[in-house]
Description:
By secondary structure, the chain is α/β, with parallel strands linked by helices. It has three domains: 2-19 and 149-244, Glucose Oxidase, domain 1; 37-137, Orthogonal Bundle (Enzyme I, Chain A, domain 2); 246-552, Phosphoenolpyruvate-binding domains (TIM Barrel). Helices cover 47% and strands 14% of the residues. It is built from 22 helices and 16 strands. It has helices at 37-62, 64-78, 80-91, 96-114, 116-122, 125-137, 160-165, 184-191, 227-244, 271-276, 300-313, 350-355, 357-376, 393-405, 418-421, 424-430, 438-446, 464-480, 494-502, 515-522, 527-539, 543-552, and strands at residues 2-5, 7-9, 13-20, 151-155, 171-176, 196-198, 211-215, 220-223, 260-265, 281-286, 318-322, 382-387, 410-415, 434-436, 484-486, 507-510. Helix 1 runs antiparallel to helix 3, helix 1 (37-62) packs across helix 6 and helix 4 packs antiparallel against helix 6 (125-137). The longest helix has 26 residues, at 37-62. The chain is globular and about 85 Å long. The structure holds phosphoenolpyruvate and magnesium ion (MG). Phosphoenolpyruvate binds next to strand 10 and helix 17. The site of phosphoenolpyruvate (PEP) has 10 residues, from strand 10 and helix 17.
Amino acid sequence: MSELHGIGVGRAVAVGPVLRMAEPLAPPSDAPLEGSPDAAIESVAAAVAAVAEDLELRGEVAGGEAKAVLEAQALMAKDPSLQDLVAGRIRDGANPERAVFDAFEEFRQMLEGLGGYLAERSADLGDVAQRIIARLRGVPAPGVPTSDEPFILVATDLAPADTALLDLDVVLGLVTSEGGPTSHTAILARARAIPAIVGVAGALELRDGQRVVLDAAAGTVTVDPDQQTLDTAAIRIKELAERAAAPVTPGALADGTKVALLANLGTPAEAAAAVELGAEGVGLFRTEFLFLGHETAPTVAEQTAQYRALLEAFRGKKVVVRCLDAGADKPLAFLTPDAEENPALGLRGLRALRAHEEVLRDQLTALRDAEAEVARSGEPADLWVMAPMVADVAETEWFVDFAGELGLATVGVMAEVPSLALQSEQVLASCAFVSIGTNDLTQYTMAADRLLGSVASYQDPWHPAVLRLIRMLGEAGAATGRPVGVCGEAAADPQLAVVLVGLGVTSLSMTPAALADVRAELALHDLDHARELAAAALAAPTAEAARAAVTAAHVP
Ligand code: PEP
Ligand code: MG
């Protein structure tokens, strides 16, 4: 038995055999054909038939949209003109792998030239070629492995499409050697409630079939576990299943201190599922997600319809809507300047809105109209609006005045820039509430681009420097009697959620899938204990030490 360590996502435990994600194939060699061309052509035909059959089978199992895509891939693999291209290259002396590689590329370019649907599908040809070459080589096809038996997937990292398409009936958990707590893999794993450990040194030494216990709460992967470890894991899995099935109650600490548990949403369509999972309202509605890809600003009417649908789903509840946060990772053609060297430090968030006041006016007008329309047809929703990327008191006052003049009643700001946190008291004295965006607050405190893999290790909201800024905001909230929420990824980390409450945070907003874990963890601690854990994290020198200090002092 041995143990590997990484950053856990969620609280779950999973036990199962490892299956490694196959590495991308090395390109085929240029070595000339050995042996008879006819035998080579036959071997390719057999590989093509097997791959097509496999794709059709996977389509049957997946159903829905995936079925249509996979069937189209199978048809492409069997296309006679493509087979002719391969055969021609083999007769000209190419080895089978090289012939497949080059012929598929030629065919891809031809389809692309035709435009329309065929051009769109042509991108899939690369994947089909890789599968055929893998079969010729006798190695597993690249990508997520297929298996009828449940397994724990081990990979360097996963592409977002891989994580989004994982079959949760067979993938029990994820272990990756790369990635940090806010990497795509971690965010998607959290959103899909897949237990994961990311950034595990030594993960790639795990072998297919080796049994492991993955403990996301502890951030450990136990390899070849003994019976006692397996028994403990089985008890934890049972407890967690009971916890997931527990009645959905409002968020509270063990002593009854209320901590509202809210949802982060990007479209009104996500509302029903969030309510089902016990969201007490919406803590962050990312409005820019509605308009990504739009060339021109949305009209007031178009926006009113969307906001109305959202508010109707949360009648009688709080709904915090963020004004368009354009720029950096979320460019909007009608707001974002074209060429900035450092877009994260450029004209984004409120800065971009101030440069296009008409867009902000239309958005706030639409929000006010939607609120009024919903109120006229039944119980109103409690609409709060906030601005992203606010730098200081002056910008806070500007936004509060602007929104107030348009008739919005509850106006606040996001705390994402350290300069705003450093002016906490004055900021909270000038607006109704603050919501801390820990993703950006961490990026700007640590001066590390949150999109850049090479500096991903800095993007850790457990860093005591980030926690100190949060404490300043929490204390200012208590002094002014105004709410201070968190809506960044940090709120979805159950242990960190307790620390945040200990720092003075009054509500937590997260991807709905994380609500049950955070609810259960909060219920284990009273406020004094949350404050002790917060003090332990603040006193630590590094993010890792803060996490370790809280894990060590975890039992209430
Ligand atoms: C944040 O920065 O923490 C946040 C919630 O906003 P976004 O992730 O959309 O930038
Ligand atoms: Mg942000």
